[in-house]
Specification:
The complex is a heterodimer of chains A (112) and B (113).
Chain A lengths: L4 E3 L2 E4 L5 E6 L6 E8 L3 E9 L2 E5 L6 E5 L5 E5 L8 E8 L7 E2 L3 E5 L1
Parallel strand pairs in A: 2-11
Antiparallel strand pairs in A: 1-3, 3-8, 4-5, 4-9, 5-6, 7-8, 9-10, 9-11
Chain B lengths: L4 E3 L2 E5 L4 E6 L6 E7 L6 E6 L5 E4 L2 E5 L5 E6 L8 E8 L1 H4 L4 E2 L3 E6 L1
Parallel strand pairs in B: 2-11
Antiparallel strand pairs in B: 1-3, 3-8, 4-5, 4-9, 6-7, 7-8, 9-10, 9-11
Classes of the chains: A mainly beta (112), B mainly beta (113).
């Protein structure tokens, strides 16, 4: 069974631009969570989706948003990028809401 | 955001040695997980613990869910070079934070052959 896939793997954007990251969960998994990883703050929870509904949201500004499609694939969007948004963005999928979360390889976003 | 206190921050050991690391929290959790992350990759799930006092093994790895529900331990026996990486603990508490994982700061493990 294929693991969690994330595209693109690397991205370079300029301040003020917006970006969309994509995540395809493990087949059969219906829950998708997003995390931001930075050297200073570590791994921080962004949001979680289940059955196309956002169930949980972390403490991030409204510039960070996401959605989930009927096939469980998920996207996250960051608008008006800031230098501090440079990070590894990780997607994790689980079969159900309370099941173990399996991570993808991440998207490395660099904002210049 | 809230993070778990994970220690040590880094470890330098010789191949064949045993390793121990732990996480503590001021809050209780009802699930503890341990992940390993290699450079440029996402965290890989090693062990999941669901019950206070539970002791679970996965090959050379053994993890325990602390009886107070505020801590967890990971032991690696007879370390090998491929054990190199960053190890993270993560806690989950459905009632207070839903399914979100709260992560420790990580333990960077270096194994000298």
């Amino acid at each position: 069974k294929a693991g969690v896939t994330q595209t693109p793997r690397y991205l370079i954007k300029t301040r003020g631009q917006q970006v969309t990251l994509s995540c395809s969960p493990i087949s059969g998994h219906r829950s998708v969570s997003w995390y931001q990883q930075t050297p200073g703050q570590g791994l921080q929870f962004l949001f979680e989706y289940f059955s196309e509904t956002q169930r949980n949201k972390g403490n991030f500004p409204g510039r960070f948003s996401g959605r989930q499609f009927s096939n469980s694939r998920s996207e996250m969007n960051v608008s008006t990028l800031e230098l501090g948004d440079s990070a590894l963005y990780l997607c994790a999928s689980s079969q159900g809401i309370w099941d173990e979360q399996y991570f993808g390889p991440g998207t490395r976003l660099t904002v210049t | 955001g809230q993070q778990l206190n994970q220690s040590p921050q880094s470890m330098f050991i010789q191949e064949g040695e045993d390793v121990s690391m732990n996480c503590t929290s001021s809050s209780i959790f009802n699930t503890w997980l341990w992940y390993k992350q290699d450079p440029g990759e996402g965290p890989v799930l090693l062990i999941a613990l669901y019950k206070a006092g539970e002791l679970t093994s996965n090959g050379r790895l053994t993890a325990q869910f602390g009886i107070t529900r505020k801590d967890s331990f990971l032991n690696i026996s007879a370390s090998i070079p491929s054990d190199v990486g960053i190890y993270f603990c993560a806690g989950q508490h459905e009632e207070t934070s839903g399914s979100r994982l709260t992560f420790g700061e990580g333990t960077q493990l270096t194994v000298n052959p």
